[in-house]
Write a structure and sequence with these properties.
Shape: elongated
Mean pLDDT: 76
Number of domains: 3
Radius of gyration: 38 Å
Catalytic activity: ATP + protein L-histidine = ADP + protein N-phospho-L-histidine
CATH superfamily of the largest domain: Histidine kinase-like ATPase, C-terminal domain
CATH topology of the largest domain: Heat Shock Protein 90
Low-confidence stretches: 192-197, 278-296
Domain Histidine kinase/HSP90-like ATPase: 234-330
CATH architecture of the largest domain: 2-Layer Sandwich
Keywords: ATP-binding, Kinase, Membrane, Nucleotide-binding, Phosphoprotein, Transferase, Transmembrane, Transmembrane helix, Two-component regulatory system
Number of helices: 8
Order of helices and strands: HHHHHHEHEEEEHEE
Largest sheet: 5 strands, mixed
Strand content: 5-15%
EC number: 2.7.13.3
Pfam family, one: HATPase_c
Structural class: alpha+beta
Number of strands: 7
Length: 333
Amino acid sequence: MRNGAILAAIAVGVLVNGLHLDHIPLWRQFLFGALAVAGYLHGRHLPVRRDWPLMGGFLAAGLLSMAVDVENGVGAVLALIMFVTLPWLAGRFRRQQAELVETARERLVRMAREQELIAERVRLQERARIAADMHDSLGHELALIALRAGALELAADMDEHNREAASALRASAVTATDRLRRTLAVLRPTDVAAPVEPANETLDALVERARDAGMSIAYRCDGEDHPLPPLVDRAVHRMVQEALTNAARHATGAEVEVRVGRTGEAVTVTVSNAVAEWPEPPEDGIGGARASVGGGNGLSGLQERVRLLGGTFRAGADDGRFTVTASLPRGEV
């Protein structure tokens, strides 16, 4: 309401100053300039809800004045157009342009924040999967310890002192299993989806399952064929699984190459396929290597898993192929 009153005062001032233009003193010329600047600043900084009807009313008033006095009416209308309407439109355009720029900036900030939240959620989900893997591997070993301690406790050639020690060992293993389960339950989000792949599925079985689904896969595994630590083995499985999923989604029908190399110190996994509709991946640093991730959020989870295991990760398009590569320290079984 106040902004409209200010605009009305500027327009009325120009209409009045536009009368009797046959002789314009210097102060009236300066007044035209001041009112033009005021009109621009009003359009730039003071929005009005019904600005066009208001401006149209002023022009109609100027046209009505022409019916009374044509000469003065024409001067008033021309002054209104030149010293109010045009400057006000220029200021209004600049204000709308600035608002569009600010809106675009806020949208970019909001989108970046949403991407950060999505990436953080993916990392938490991957950590939850790692927690489940720890529960499966460590829980199994602790169960074996409890079982063997129970067998020692029942052995006929054990004296009472050793039997009590075996009983305490069995109780400690059971307690450790229970504490591990409770700790991982706290760390694991309730909305993490259960894994859909078979439990303890080997890499060969995973590749064969994908082939049975219709994918063309060239698979090769080189190096030492010794058991891997459970978390490293699970990471290799997850990486191949996610890469095959992305290849099936974004490069349907293209042959996929899966190469696994094992040495005494590390395991290297490389999965590549022809590029189809992969988006341009951003860059991020993982374990000292430059990693670029495209497609869905699964590769972000693989980044987190590889980072937690102390490995390096890279994913990106090169020479017409999209390649995912990871190197994981082998560690001890």
